[in-house]
Automatic annotation (TrEMBL):
Similarity-based family: Belongs to the aldo/keto reductase family.
Highest taxon above the source species: Eukaryota
Binding site for substrate: H96
CDD domains (UniProt xref): AKR_AKR1-5-like (cd19071)
InterPro entries in the cross-refs: AKR, Aldo/ket_reductase_CS, NAD(P)_OxRdtase_dom_sf, NADP_OxRdtase_dom
Protein name: NADP-dependent oxidoreductase domain-containing protein
UniProt entry tagged with the keyword Oxidoreductase: yes
Site for Lowers pKa of active site Tyr, residues: K63
NADP-dependent oxidoreductase domain sequence ranges: 5-250
Alphabetic keyword roster: Oxidoreductase
Length: 258
């Protein structure tokens, strides 16, 4: 799983998504993160085909929407996503959120395991799961344990307890909204650190996630920002600067799922 990917949340189906994915792939990205609820899976698939890059070199994630939870509906939803994208499989399939109760969550996970056995998903995981939701899943003795939990995480929402638990269970942290949806790019601490390294505030935030050991999926539909966001492998943040960013935590959630 590539450590840095392009998220396509809230991008319009059609040229906006297609161009963003093509620009990202040209810039060296090999990880694209979409979801059923984003309504742009078809454009992701179109861009992958147009790129000319072999399918097995691109890591594709999509997600099961809450309304499709349940055994048969989850399998049908994944098959529909594959048809929309024109793909034989996804590299990672996630339960998008832990809504609608333990019975549906359990049935959905069994469906995810079936999808792996059928070769339609290479790996499976969850998104927006709390520690209690993870314990519920792990306590059910699943055939396949979740590979990842995709959660909102950035210096203003560090979620250290949840991340620590996930690390004990070998569950990878995938950080979405790593730029806090640009709400905090003018933070004085962040700006000072960005100036020190001659990098943009966004690049500093992405680097912070990488040095934490997270997979990070910044979203942008602008070519120059897509190219800038991947240019984060030529420097390291000093321990003191990492600590300063850690100190910004205020449990600031930008999304609707906590």
């Amino acid at each position: 799983m590539p450590l840095l990917g392009l998220g396509v949340y809230a991008m319009e189906d059609g040229p906006e998504t297609e161009n963003a994915v093509l620009w990202a792939l040209k810039a060296g990205y090999r990880h694209i993160d979409t979801a059923t609820i984003y309504n742009n899976e078809g454009s992701v698939g179109n861009a992958i085909r147009k790129s000319g890059i072999p399918r097995d070199e691109i890591f594709v994630t999509t997600k099961l929407t809450e309304d499709d939870q349940g055994y048969e509906s989850a399998i049908a939803a994944c098959e529909l996503s594959l048809r929309k994208m024109g793909l034989d499989y996804v590299d990672l399939y996630l339960i998008h959120a832990p809504h609608y109760g333990p019975e549906l969550r359990s049935a959905s996970w069994k469906a995810m395991e079936t999808l792996v056995s059928q070769g339609k998903a290479k790996s499976i995981g969850v998104s927006n799961y709390s520690e209690s939701h993870l314990k519920e899943l792990l306590g059910s003795n699943p055939i396949i344990r979740p590979a990842v939990n995709q959660i909102e995480i950035h210096p203003w929402l560090t979620r250290t307890d949840r991340v620590a638990f996930m690390q004990t269970q070998n569950i990878v942290t995938v950080a979405y909204s790593p730029l806090a949806q640009a709400h905090k790019l003018n933070d004085p601490v962040l700006v000072k650190i960005a100036t020190k390294y001659s990098k943009s505030p966004a690049q500093i935030l992405i680097r912070w996630s990488l040095q934490k050991g997270y997979v990070v999926i910044p979203k942008s539909s602008k070519k120059e920002r897509i190219e800038q966001n991947v240019d984060v492998f030529d420097f390291d943040l000093a321990d003191g600067d990492m600590a300063a960013l850690d100190g910004l935590n205020e449990n600031y959630v930008t999304g609707t799922v906590t």
